[in-house]
């Protein structure tokens, strides 16, 4: 047995963070929190952490506002300069320009017909340097008007667009008009040049001064140093964001095409050699939902598999005729040879994720077969039911299986439950449990397409560096309500753009718990190396101590994403990838209240997991790395509400005032490029309809949901996703009400692995 290098545990003590939260909320003493129902220190600590995080988010939003608006106002103060264009817009009186200055005309003046024009040629020229530099030169055109007879308003300035349009010449910061004057032969070399600064260096000082006296038209409208720095920073920021958007789109599109070709080749040529466990965890689902999931697992086009269903307590869902475990038992056919060999189904003891006396739980193991009728006949698969006596949560259901394979691969002591499960897997499948190399985790409301397991297993089989795979999750109830409709394109983009791009680096930051496959171990010449069930992963993922808000968000709300984070942290050189050809269908929330609760959990767990990923050694260097992407994603998540407000201000102001094209182009790329992915992925033009619906719902995604999630940082409940008869079980999911400090795991009966063999 080998343990890979660089394995490290997570969840360190965050004393510095806790002290910081106390400072941020020091103006509210603990007795006031107790008056509002926060009796325990843990509740008070969670509330203080929430407020501290909200302060950080507020500062991040203010920083974005300062960069967007305040920096320009502070550093780039408007300069009082007049161009021909601005004078035409703001002037309330007749005026003209001559020799680089703007003059005011009195009503009834002879020159009023020339108002708004440059009439330098109509005025006398004072050019003493020309007489000295070019004694034989005579002026061909000299005006008769004198500038001293008119009221000067201000110097005239020219923008580069005006210079190019009127074919003017620039020397240094001065602007010169060479169009309507006959110059000495030596000065004619400057005519026709936009920027004649270098060419003017060949002239003597008097010759250059002569040119300026003859042709001076005004000054270049230059930005101040502050404005130049500000705009350079803003343009570089926009370029960085635009570059990331374009690179993400390009790499995601290329990855999708390459993976489709690769998958087609794998399915045609490769044979199945990797035994896979198909695991689904359920809680209060009814017969119809369970049947659709088990049917899809049973008819998988993959032979080396066993289905394991873990029921989290004897819970009766609202409207169900019986508890979920009873429904499951009625759906399988018990294996006769297992019963004959004395494999009883009495509850067996195991160590669960809980505190105090709840550390010990019991579970029944039922071995049998599951059959489904298809067009080509009846298909039967081996199935094992694990029916836990008490509810401990989804993470505990996963840990039941992960801990079992950990004990088997490391050949350590087994609990009574592990021993029972070991015998029934071996008796049912004819294979030793340590032969299984991967595990597919599926939610009980998910239907897996027939070829999905084969595609995922063969992809993992073809590349030993892959330790986790997810496929595309499609929405089966997309037409149920407006709530389901707004989620269709969001699901599509999160897979094909986000996960597709991350797969290029092999660093998918979230393998969805509803449909993903993990590698249990890597076979080597001298044994095997556990991956998913390595000690460091199990120790962190199976922690029953969640003292800080950060730990609670990781372990209680976002366990699927956290498991991904753990794998990336412990195995930075291995890959987590997305396979677009592996498909499943799931049911999404059809009511806004349920969506609100679900996204509260997802957004909060995303933020806390991204904080963890900042400490992970992801691939790449500096700005060309996944670390840079994670930083931008974290900052983008924190400032989503502010960004949404700024976006609306930008769009509305573009209809009222002159549009600011660079931010608008950036916005178009961010929102428009994902639509082009449709042509590279599924070629379903109906997705353009889902895109329009998604764009209309952006205020919900980017403002309503994040604001709700941020204010509920200290809410660790799962909401009303599934109703059960009689309400939620008291102290479920491993909570302890006893407050005992006894380590009940030491009371578990353990069996040496050698005795099993």
TrEMBL record:
Record protein name field: chitin synthase
Membrane topology field: Multi-pass membrane protein
Keyword entries, A-Z: Glycosyltransferase, Membrane, Transferase, Transmembrane, Transmembrane helix
Listed InterPro entries: Chitin_synth (IPR004835), Nucleotide-diphossugar_trans (IPR029044)
Main location: membrane
E.C. numbers: 2.4.1.16
Protein's cellular compartments: Membrane
Origin: domain of life: Eukaryota
Taxonomy of the source species: Eukaryota, Fungi, Fungi incertae sedis, Microsporidia, Nematocida
Biological source species: Nematocida ausubeli (strain ATCC PRA-371 / ERTm2) (Nematode killer fungus)
Membrane-traversing stretches: 20-38, 50-71, 233-258, 630-655, 661-680, 687-711
GO molecular function, one term: chitin synthase activity
One GO term of the biological process aspect: chitin biosynthetic process
GO cellular component: cell periphery; cell septum; membrane
């Amino acid at each position: 047995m080998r343990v890979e290098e660089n394995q490290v545990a997570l969840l360190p003590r965050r004393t510095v963070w806790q002290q910081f939260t106390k400072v941020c909320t020091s103006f509210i003493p603990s007795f006031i929190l107790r008056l509002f129902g926060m009796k325990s220190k843990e509740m008070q600590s969670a509330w203080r952490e929430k407020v501290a995080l909200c302060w950080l988010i507020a500062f991040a939003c203010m920083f974005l506002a300062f960069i967007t608006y305040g920096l320009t106002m502070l550093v780039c103060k408007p300069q009082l300069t007049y161009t021909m264009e601005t004078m035409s817009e703001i002037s309330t009186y007749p005026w003209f320009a001559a020799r680089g200055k703007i003059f005011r005309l009195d009503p009834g003046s002879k020159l009023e017909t020339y108002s708004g024009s440059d009439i330098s040629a109509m005025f006398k020229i004072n050019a003493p340097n020309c007489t000295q530099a070019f004694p034989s030169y005579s002026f061909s055109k000299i005006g008769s008007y004198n500038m001293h007879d008119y009221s000067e308003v201000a110097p005239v300035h020219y923008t580069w667009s005006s210079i190019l349009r009127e074919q003017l010449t620039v020397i240094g910061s001065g602007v010169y008009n060479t169009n309507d004057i006959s110059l000495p032969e030596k000065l004619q070399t400057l005519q026709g040049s936009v920027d004649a600064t270098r060419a003017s260096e060949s002239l003597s000082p008097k010759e250059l001064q002569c040119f300026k006296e003859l042709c001076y038209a005004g000054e270049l409208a230059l930005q101040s140093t502050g404005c130049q720095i500000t705009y350079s920073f803003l343009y570089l920021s926009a370029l960085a964001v635009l570059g990331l958007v374009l690179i993400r789109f390009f790499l995601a599109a290329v990855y999708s095409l390459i993976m489709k070709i690769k998958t087609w080749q794998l399915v045609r040529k490769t044979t199945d050699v990797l035994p896979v466990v198909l695991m689904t965890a359920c809680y209060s689902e009814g017969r119809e939902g369970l049947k659709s999931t088990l049917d899809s697992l049973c008819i998988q086009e993959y032979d080396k598999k066993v289905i394991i269903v873990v029921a989290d307590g004897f819970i009766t869902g609202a409207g169900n005729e019986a508890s979920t475990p009873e429904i499951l038992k009625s759906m399988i056919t018990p294996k006769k040879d297992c019963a004959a060999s004395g494999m009883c189904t009495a509850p067996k003891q195991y160590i669960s994720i809980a505190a105090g006396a709840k550390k010990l739980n019991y579970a029944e193991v039922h071995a049998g077969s599951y059959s489904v009728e298809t067009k080509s006949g009846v298909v039967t698969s081996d199935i094992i039911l694990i029916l836990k006596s008490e509810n401990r949560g989804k993470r505990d259901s996963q840990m039941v299986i992960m801990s079992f394979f950990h004990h088997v691969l490391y050949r350590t002591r087994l609990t009574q439950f592990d021993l029972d499960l070991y015998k029934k897997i071996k008796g049912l499948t004819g294979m030793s449990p340590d032969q299984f190399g991967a595990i597919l985790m599926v939610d009980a409301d998910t239907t897996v397409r027939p070829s999905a397991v084969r595609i995922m297993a063969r992809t993992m089989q073809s590349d030993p560096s892959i330790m986790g795979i997810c496929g595309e999750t499609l929405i089966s109830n997309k037409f149920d309500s407006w709530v389901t409709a707004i989620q269709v394109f969001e699901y599509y983009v999160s897979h094909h753009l986000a996960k597709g791009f991350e797969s290029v680096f092999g660093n998918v930051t979230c393998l969805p718990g509803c449909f993903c496959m993990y590698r249990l171990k890597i076979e080597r010449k001298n044994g095997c190396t556990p991956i998913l069930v390595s000690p460091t992963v199990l120790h962190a993922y199976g922690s029953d101590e969640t003292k800080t808000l950060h730990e609670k968000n990781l372990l209680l709300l976002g366990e699927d994403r956290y498991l991904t984070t753990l794998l990336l942290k412990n195995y930075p050189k291995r890959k987590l990838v997305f396979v677009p050809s592996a498909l499943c269908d799931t049911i999404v929330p059809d009511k806004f209240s349920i969506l609100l609760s679900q996204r509260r959990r997802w957004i909060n767990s995303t933020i806390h997991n991204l904080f963890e990923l900042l400490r992970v050694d992801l691939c790449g260097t500096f700005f060309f790395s996944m670390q840079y992407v994670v930083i931008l994603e974290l900052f983008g998540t924190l400032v989503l509400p502010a960004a949404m407000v700024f976006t609306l201000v930008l769009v509305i102001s573009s209809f009222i005032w002159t549009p600011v094209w660079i931010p608008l182009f950036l916005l178009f790329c961010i929102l428009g490029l994902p639509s082009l992915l449709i042509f590279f992925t599924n070629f379903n033009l109906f997705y353009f309809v889902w895109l329009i619906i998604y764009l209309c719902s952006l205020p919900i995604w980017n403002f309503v949901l994040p604001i709700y999630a941020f204010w509920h940082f200290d809410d660790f409940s799962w909401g009303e996703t599934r109703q059960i008869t009689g309400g939620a079980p008291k102290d479920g999911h491993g909570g302890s009400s006893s407050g005992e400090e006894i380590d009940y795991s030491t009371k578990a009966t353990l069996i040496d692995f050698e005795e099993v063999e």
